[in-house]
Amino acid sequence: MELRHLEHFVAVAEQKHFTRAAEAMSISQSGLSASIRALERELRAPLFVRNTRSVELTEAGRALLCEGRRTLAAAEAAKDAVAAVQGLLRGHLTVGLEQCLGVVDVPALLAKFRSAYPGVEIEVRQAGSTPMLDELASGRLDVAFVATAGDPVDGLDLRPLSRESMVLVCAPDHRLANATAVTLDDLAGESFVDFDPTWGARAISDQAFATAGVAHPVTIEVNDVHTLLALVAHNLGVALVPERIAAKRGDHVTVGLTPGSASDWQVSVAVPTGTAASLAADALIGMLPTTATHTRPDRLP
Questions:
Q1: How far apart are CA 103 and CA 153, in angstroms?
Q2: Starting from the edge strand earliest in sequence, which strands make up the sheet with 166-170, in order?
Q3: Which has the least CB within 10 A, 74, 109, 277, 298?
Q4: Beta-strand relationship, 253-257 and 181-182
């Protein structure tokens, strides 16, 4: 099986369109089609269901896609290994990042990396932690800065950078604003402002309320920390957020949760386990400051 055939297959699978995939790969559409046909002949199975508007993966195609991505990632890592022996790190580094993690200055880290390894092309994708973990496992990301409850993930190595408690944020005139601490039962009947379900903080909140058997109706869903806190400050709902996020504005009230109410929010740098991690990812992680640990929210800039 030729790697270029596999690269062409993954491009078509991701674009769901031969013309767009051909443009992305800078080859002719006829050449791309011929490459896919050669791969299908070798595997003795159709990989796509074709129609006039798009293409969809067959069952065989779906089975090949995940392993195909892994194979291409391993091939790229092999090239990097040879380059490293020759004293030249080159290739491609794809970094995932959930916004507002705040533990590491990722732009400064990437600038330092680019200065040290100008031969490596850097790509950055910002998304929720849940899909980024999936992309890491499938080989579509090399490294990701994520927020989770800290539970193990098969095939991935999560290296903790920071851990902190979840807290309640509410409006200054909210009925719980003067409480010293609250339980999840105290929040029964409330409406919630929360992040997209792919964000780490949202996953922790959903899990906590489900375990407690308390309803968690999210009436406003956002993808921005400052918007969430502004909505809370105007008493349009309450929210559970990490301490670090709660400290980003001062026009709301922060109330602690009773111990054990929710899992802690853990920020980690994640890579595939074992030899699957790329040399470029290892080099980036090696540049992380040794002090990349939890900073108290009241000392944030």
A1: 21
A2: 181-182, 253-257, 166-170, 239-242
A3: 298
A4: parallel
Contact 221, 276 (CB under 8 A): no
pLDDT digits (tens, 9 = 90+) for 162-199: 999 999 999 999 999 999 999 999 999 999 999 999 99
Q: Which two tokens stand for residue 75?
A: 């091939």
Q: Is the pTM of this model over 0.90?
A: no
CA distance 164 to 106: 19
The string of pLDDT tens digits covering residues 125-170 is 999 999 999 999 888 899 999 999 999 999 899 999 999 999 999 9
Sign of CA pseudo-dihedral 240, 246, 249, 251: positive
* Residue count of the chain: 301
Token pair belonging to 107: 């732009």
Map the chain to HEC letters. Answer: CCHHHHHHHHHHHHHCCHHHHHHHHCCCHHHHHHHHHHHHHHHCCCCEEECCCCEEECHHHHHHHHHHHHHHHHHHHHHHHHHHHCCCCCEEEEEEECCCCCCCCHHHHHHHHHHHCCCEEEEEEECCHHHHHHHHHHCCCCEEEEEECCCCCCCEEEEEEEEECEEEEECCCCCCCCCCEECCHHHCCCCEEEECCCCHHHHHHHHHHHHHCCCCCEEEEECCHHHHHHHHHCCCCEEEEEHHHHCCCCCCEEEEECCCCCCCEEEEEEEECHHHCCHHHHHHHHCCCCCCCCCCHHHCC
Structure tokens given for 214: 């308390």
With beta carbons less than 8 A apart as the criterion, state whether 158 and 232 touch. Answer: no
